[in-house]
Structure formats: C-alpha cells, structure tokens
Design goal:
The chain has 418 residues and is α+β, with helices and mostly antiparallel strands. It contains 17 helices and twelve strands. The strands form four sheets. Strands 3-4-10-7-5 form a five-stranded mixed sheet. It has a three-stranded antiparallel sheet with strand order 6-12-11. Helix 7 runs parallel beside helix 17 and helix 13 packs across helix 15. The longest helix has 32 residues. The N and C termini lie far apart (47 Å).
C-alpha cells in the first residue's frame, strides 16, 4: 500500500494509509497531528484505526478509563489470527494486552526482574558484554582501520539481545532463530503469508524454550515463571506464559538497539555535543533522553480500544469498539511539547517524550534500556575516538515498519582506537 491508497471498512473511510517502509514515519506523524486530535488511518489488512499523534491527547487517552488494551473484551470484531501482522501485538495474553486485575497479576510476575536493585546489579554483566563486543570490533582490524563495519550488526544489536537472552536463559543454539522471528514482528511491510509464518515460528521458538527449561531449569526468568506456573496454575496460564516471553524478550531487545543506533548517528552528526558528553560523563543521560525524544524506538504501538464514546473536541468522537493507535513517538516531536523538535540538543530544557509509554503500561524494561545505552555509548566513543559514518546520513535505510523506528544498517568507519 502507498500513502495515496484509501481503505474502506465498516468504521469509515480514510485517505491516509500508514506507510510500511519506515521512510515517512516522521512526516506522516506531523501530517496526522495537524489534521486533528485523532485521525482515521488505514493499516495492513484493511483495518482502520484512530491515530492519536498529539502529545496532550495521547497522554489523556493512555490513562482514560474508557480506553482498553484487551482486544478479547473490547474489540467487538476481534478474531484471533485474522490479521497475522497483529498477532504478537493483539492476540497474545500478557500484561501488554490486559487491563485491571489481570494486568497487575501478570506484571507482578515479571516485575521482580526489573527492580532498581536488580537493574543496578546487572551493570557488571552489561559492561562485560560491551567490552567483549568492542574487543571483537577492534581485533580483526590490523592494517585496515577504515574498512566499513555495520555497527548495528556488530554492536548495538548483539548487546541488548545478549543481555535479555541471558536474563531469560535462552540457550545459545536457540537464540538465532528466536531473534530472527522477533525482528520480523516489527516488519509491517510483510505479506500476510510471511506474517503468518512469523507467527507460527514465534510460538514454536517460545515453546521450545519452555520445554528446554522444564527439562533443565536454571537461574533465569523463564525458569522462575515456570516455577510460578507450577506452584499455582491460576496465576499464569500456558498462553500467558508464552505471551509474556514474547513480550519481554522482544521488548527487551528491539528498543535498545534503536536507541543506540540513533544516538550514535546523532552524535556523529553533532561532534560538538559528543565532545560535551565525553568531557562530562553525567551528560550521557541527556544524550539518551534527547535521542529517545527525537528518535523514539517505537512510533505507533498497536492497539487500544474505546469502550465508550469519547469526545476529543474539534468534531472528533471515538465510538465504543473503535480501534485506537497511539503514536507514542509523535509526542516527543510535537512542537507544543518540545519547541523546534527536529533539532537535536542535549541542552534542551523541559524535554518531554513518551518513548517508554505512560500510565500503568509504562515499560518495565525502561531502566534496563537506559543502563545498556549508558554503558555502551561512552565505551564505544572512548574506544574509537575516530568513529565516523561510512557514507551520507541521508543514505541510511530505515527499518520497514510504522511500529519500530530504527535503521537496517549503520555502516561506520572505526578509525584509530583510543
């Protein structure tokens, strides 16, 4: 589909179809924000949802009592599996797709892994992985300091995926297949047949992990979830167990990859701000927050549902049963929240963003993502002070998605080591 297509469904007609290539991510968000407090958009499979791209409206709806995350209870037309590209976002049964007591129950089961104390205790492991990856980057380079390297494949991707796979005890031989299907979830350009295969492979990967851990439990989150299930099956069903693993392993990797990629590209484009961060370690926090604001790892996050009519003003009313697509990433780029939003500025005052959500569904893994970036970025630029892009920034190809916001590759020249 292209942005000029129109999509008709019982919910109405829309002239804006979300671009699946990732190339119009920011442009479309700006267009939708200007068009109204909520605008009907077309999605793959002919679905139509209300896109909410204004920061103030998004914040209001994210805590609104008549907005639900539970498709089973709140989407009258919901049919599990009917839209394969949505399966991992809608058809699963986890804290991500639950409300009220169910959300609290499922969140409590995994929250123990993401307490401030547990996250802080993970720092040495993160530092060790970063050092190993940098050593590997440096080792084969003798005599070829200006050979292009894909930093995404060699550094920003393996760091968070190794951390989260270690946390959940994913065996080394299962990691490539699992990560492949998790990556594919974000591809909104996939055909229905490709998306259906991804869905099937995803559940196979998670069930394989569960079978492995049932046979040989370890000191990891998957084994802890299995123990909770066996102790009291009412606390965690088999479907909830599989869904929780999809959520945590997927969310625990993809967002951090994008954060590191975008931060590196921005700092290489703004050497003066890189110099400030290198001169004052406390400023790396500002680098991270400004990157999250300008380049949110997630732009549009499927899906929410109106459970009653909601008047948003300007002649726009959400009706009970309507689909709602919150553009989390649009808030940080909203000029009402952040003046001159296209400017990357680590000195920006009163910075606002919703990169990790808002309200009860705020991302549990946000502190871990920040920790990983906080360790990775200064280590990378200290080890490779001559780091630079291998080509023009404009030539960097985006991830084919209106959900995720990342590059396919980040080719760099490492230069001399520090």
């Amino acid at each position: 589909m292209t942005t000029t297509d129109t999509t008709t469904r019982t919910t109405g007609t829309t002239g804006t179809v979300l671009d699946t290539t990732g190339r119009l991510l920011y442009e479309q968000a700006e267009h939708l924000r200007a068009a109204g407090p909520a605008v009907r958009v077309g999605m793959p499979g002919g679905l139509v949802a209300w896109s909410v791209s204004r920061g103030d409206v998004a914040r209001r709806l994210l805590v609104h009592p008549n907005i639900s995350k539970d498709a089973r209870a709140s989407w009258p037309d919901h049919r599990p599996g009917a839209f394969p590209w949505l399966t991992a976002w809608v058809d699963v049964v986890s804290m991500f797709t639950s409300d009220g007591a169910d959300h609290k129950r499922l969140k409590d089961l995994v929250a123990r892994a993401f307490t401030a104390r547990r996250i802080d205790a993970m720092r040495p492991a993160v530092e060790a992985i970063v050092t190993d990856l940098l050593d590997t980057l440096q080792a084969p380079r003798s005599g070829a300091p200006d050979r292009p390297v894909d930093l995404r494949a060699a550094f920003s991707y393996p760091l968070p995926t190794r951390v989260i796979c270690d946390l959940f005890g994913v065996p080394d031989d299962q990691r490539p297949g699992m990560l492949r299907v998790i990556d594919a979830i974000l591809d909104t350009s996939a055909s229905p047949e490709q998306a259906a295969r991804t869905h099937e492979d995803l559940f196979i990967a998670m069930n394989t992990l569960i079978a492995t851990k049932r046979a040989a439990p370890g000191d990891d989150m998957t084994s802890l979830l299995l123990a909770a299930q066996e102790e009291d099956g009412d606390r965690l069903s088999e479907a909830e167990l599989v869904s929780t693993l999809i959520l945590m392993i997927g969310a625990g990797s993809e967002t951090t990859v994008a954060l590191i990629d975008h931060a590196v590209v921005e700092l290489l484009s703004h050497p003066d701000q890189l110099a400030v961060a290198l001169g004052d370690p406390a400023r790396w926090d500002d680098v991270i927050e400004e990157t999250l604001r300008k380049h949110p790892p997630i732009m549009h996050l499927p899906l929410r549902y109106a459970t009653a009519d909601i008047d948003l003003g300007e002649g726009v009313t959400l009706r009970a049963g309507d689909l709602v697509l919150i553009a989390f990433g649009a808030h940080g780029r909203d000029p009402e929240a952040n003046p001159d939003p296209d400017r990357f500025d680590i000195d920006r005052a009163d910075r606002q963003h919703l990169a990790f959500g808002y309200g009860i569904h705020y991302c549990l893994g946000a502190p871990l993502a920040r920790l990983e970036a906080r360790v990775a970025l200064p280590a990378l630029f200290t080890r490779f002070p001559g780091l630079r892009l291998a080509g023009e920034r404009a030539a960097l190809a985006p991830q084919p998605s209106f959900i995720g916001n990342d590059y396919r590759e980040v080719p760099v020249l490492l230069g001399p080591t520090g």
